[in-house]
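Whether sequence alone determines local backbone shape is best considered at the level of individual chains. When preparing material for the folding task, we compiled for one chain both its residues and its backbone structure tokens. No coordinates are needed to read the tokens, only the vocabulary itself. For completeness, the protein is quoted in full, as a sequence line and a line of structure tokens:
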Amino acid sequence: MATQKLYAGAKLREIRTRLTLTQKDFAAKLGVSLPYLNQMENNNRPVSTTVVLALAQEFGLDVTELSTGDSERLVSDMREALADPIFADTMPPLADLRLTASNAPALARAFIELHKSYRQTHERLASLDEALGREDARIQASPWEEVRDFFHYCDNYIDAVDHAAERFSAQANDAGDVRTVALGSLSARGIQVKLTDIEALRSFDAKARVLHLSSRSSPQTQVFQMLLQVALVSQDKLLEATLDFARFHSEEARSIAKIGLANYFAGAALMPYGTFLAAARDCRHDLELLSARFGASIEQVAHRLSTMQRPGAKGIPFFFVRVDQAGTITKRHSATRLQFARFGGACPLWNVHRAFETPGHFLRQLAETPDGVRYISLARDVSKPGGSFGAPVRRYAIALGCEVRHADALVYADNMDVTNASAYEPIGISCRICERQQCHQRSVPPLERRLTINANERGTLPYEVN
């Protein structure tokens, strides 16, 4: 397979602006001519190896910033939006989408936002009878989706919050002592912690200064909820400053995001970046070993692994997803080129859906997407008991994975034939934008392809994809 050329004009301009350099000065420091730099910034030429080395040596820059990961995400999101039937006759070629993502990322995001607003409007109109007479029946972006996209485009890594959490956990003598530090932090602010037989995981009485934690929940959950409360009472200024930077469109989105940032702080304090990254590399990303060492759940460990994107100290770029039994994605993030459907369910050929069939066991899968990229995917069910007889059990499945080129760093890749092309199962994003012509699990035709229907023949599908 030919090496893909790196076009990163928008990122080069962003780096130059951040360094407050003119094109002339920037070109001189990179050792290239002014016209050559201009061509690279306008994506008329790929970024050369000389420039990549100069960025690292001259500015100490983490050259992975030039990665096309964000562009790939934008292209994937635009393709999914353009797969909408309203664009059926106006699908731009893939080259145009890549050019837009590279040269005009702000425009690409604006288009995605516009299409998202259209879909939400369409869904509201479809259930107009429920909205009639309601004062809040106004057209606006979904706060939940807005927050999810915020974390998505931050690579699920919030630098200031992560560093603050790492400084907080540095007070602990070992990984298991963070509970003591959290108790001390709350006590210093006059907050008493009580284990109480309640259904809620956490309930804070601000007036009485008492934090009630459910005695029914696991020790890992109790510590996590305690750290979340620490974030809310001790890191409020930091969280608010981060929210100001995000510029959410509604108070609902801002409130949801604040809880998200507090959750992020809790996870980062429970599994501090430097220590956790070193431990993950040492045990080759064994989730069970990491869970035992840091007193975290399997899901918390998997989620944390997907956030290890600190500039200059990046871990393996993982994707992480959680689905419910209906196949609905409830959590998603990808630091890889693999993207998830923004609307609807994920590809049914993905092993995350089979995890419900084998509770308590890890499933391994070698998978290949239509673009030819190969991945190793790890899936497992995660059940959350209700805590009492008759209480509903919440059942989910999680998947964690990365490109197969990182297989040597994963204990789960041991004894898998990663060099055998036939070992890889074909998966996609969702049926309506999947390019595969032959798929026995296809639910709907791909919108970018023409169909041939022959009444005298019936194969796996009632049509042929051209």
Observations:
- The mean pLDDT is 84.
- Residues 161 and 408 are 31 Å apart (CA to CA).
- The chain has 17 helices and eleven strands.
